[in-house]
Amino acid sequence: MGKIVEAAASSRDLEGEVVFLTGAGGGLGQSIVNGFLSAGVKRIIAANRQSFAWQSSAVEPLILDITDLQGVRAAAKKYAQLTDILINNAGLNHNANLLRSTDTKLARREMEVNYFGTINMVREFGEVMRRRGNGTIVNIVSIGAQIAFPNMGSYCASKAALHSMTQAIRAELNQSGICVMGVYPPAMDTRMSAHLDGSRKISPQQVAMELISALKHGGPEDVYVGPAAVLHDRLMREPKVVEAELGLRSV
C-alpha cells in the first residue's frame, strides 16, 4: 500500500455520487471507472479524446480533448453542476529526455495536455463547485513531479508544473468547501510505460483502489501509491542522493 498524507478524519460514502473522469479510455482510466462502479457511484461521465465503448449503463461516454477550451466549456456547462468528483487523469508522455530530443513539439504537447489542459478543467468545473460550495477535484500527478527521471525529462517537467498548480488551486479553494487531492503513482503497467520492465511497474488497479480508498476516508490531500511512497520518504530525507542515483541509470 502507499501513503496517504494529511487525511481528514471523516469518512465518505460514494454511493449515489457523480464522477467526471478525463482520460477514461487509458489503462488507469478504465481501472478508475471499474473501481467507482464497484463503489456504487450513481454515474460516471467518462471523457476520452477518442470514442470508447463501456459495458455499464452507469457510464456515459464523452469525446473530449481537454486542450480544447471551447469543448471543455461545453462539457462544464452540461455536467459541472452535476459533478461531485472531478478526476483529471488525461495525460501524455512522449518518453523523451530534454537534451537529446530535438523536437520541442513533444515537450510543448506534454505541457499542453498535462498542465494547461488540466487548468482548463479545473477552472471551468472548479468555478461551478466554488459557487455551489462543495466538490472534490483529484489531479493524477506522478512521483516524477518531484524527482526527474532521466529519459522522460519533459514529461516530469510538465508533471512538476501540475504538482505546483495542484498546490495553488488547493490554496485558492481553501475556504470554499472543495477538497483538492493529488495522487502520485510510480510507473504503471499501461501503454504509456510499455517500454519499462514489468518489475518496475505497479498495476493501474492498485492506483485506482488507493485513490478510491482515499476518497472514502474523507478527501486527503496527497496520496503516494506503492513504491512512490518509499521514494517520497527518501526525497524528504536525502533528495540529492536520490537525484544522483537516478542520474546513473535510464528508465
Rg from Cα: 17 Å
Q: Structural class from helices and strands? A: alpha/beta
* CATH 2nd-level architecture: 3-Layer(aba) Sandwich
The first-level CATH class name: Alpha Beta
| Alpha carbon gap, first and last residue | 23 Å
Strand content: 15-25%
Mean pLDDT: 89
Poorly predicted regions are none
Features:
251 residues, alpha/beta, Rossmann fold, 8-stranded mixed beta sheet, 8 strands
Give an account of the 3D structure.
The protein is of the alpha/beta class. The protein has a single domain (3-247), classed as NAD(P)-binding Rossmann-like Domain (Rossmann fold). The protein has helices at residues 27-39, 69-79, 104-132, 153-172, 204-216, 227-237, 239-247; strands spanning 3-5, 18-21, 43-48, 59-63, 85-88, 135-140, 178-184, 222-224. Helix 1 (27-39) packs across helix 5 and helix 3 packs parallel to helix 4 (153-172). The longest helix has 29 residues, at 104-132.
